[in-house]
Amino acid sequence: MDIHLSQSVTTGDGQTGRQLIKSFAAQPIPSVGFKIKDIAFRGPSEYEVVNVVINYENEECWVHLEPVYLESNDPEDLKDFIREYLMRGWECPVSRR
Q1: Domain-by-domain residue ranges, the chain?
Q2: pLDDT attached to residue 97
Q3: CA distances from 46 to 2, 40, 73, 74, 78 (A)
Q4: CA nearest to 68, candidates 34, 20, 36
Q5: Where does the source fall among the domains of life (predicted)?
Q6: What is the rounded distance in angstroms from the CA atom of residue 44 to the CA atom of residue 8?
Q7: Out of 22, 35, 46, 67, which could bridge 90 as a Cys pair, Cβ 3.0 to 4.6 Å?
């Protein structure tokens, strides 16, 4: 089954944010309350699973992690944060507004 980790990251004022996704094949499926570690995570080194959605027909599982709220309101700090995740195998899909 394909597992898709999903985490939102937002500037401190909540004005700017993005969704980050990392996909891989894995077993077992995490449950709400589990802690997930990843090389991209920095202080804290793990995040809690807050929601899990399983689609058996498509053989995929979306695992939503607790969001990240940056202390800064600067969009450049958000870009730097996203860049760190991208260098560690995460994706940042483009918003289709």
Answers
A1: 2-86
A2: 44
A3: 20, 10, 23, 24, 19
A4: 20
A5: Bacteria
A6: 15
A7: 22
State the Cα–Cα distance between residues 84 and 25, nearest whole angstrom: 22
* Distance of alpha carbon 41 from alpha carbon 34, whole angstroms: 15
- Nearest CA among 95, 93, 30, 94 for reference residue 66: 30
Predicted pLDDT of residue 95: 59
pTM: 0.88
Q: Which residues contact 60 (CB under 8 A, 6 or more apart)?
A: 1, 2, 3, 4, 54
The tens digit of pLDDT for each residue in 28-64 reads 889 999 999 999 998 788 999 999 999 999 999 999 9
8-30 pLDDT, tens digit each? 999 999 889 999 999 999 888 89
Query: Which residue has 């995460």 as its token pair?
Result: 90
Nearest to 40 by CA among 9, 1, 74: 9
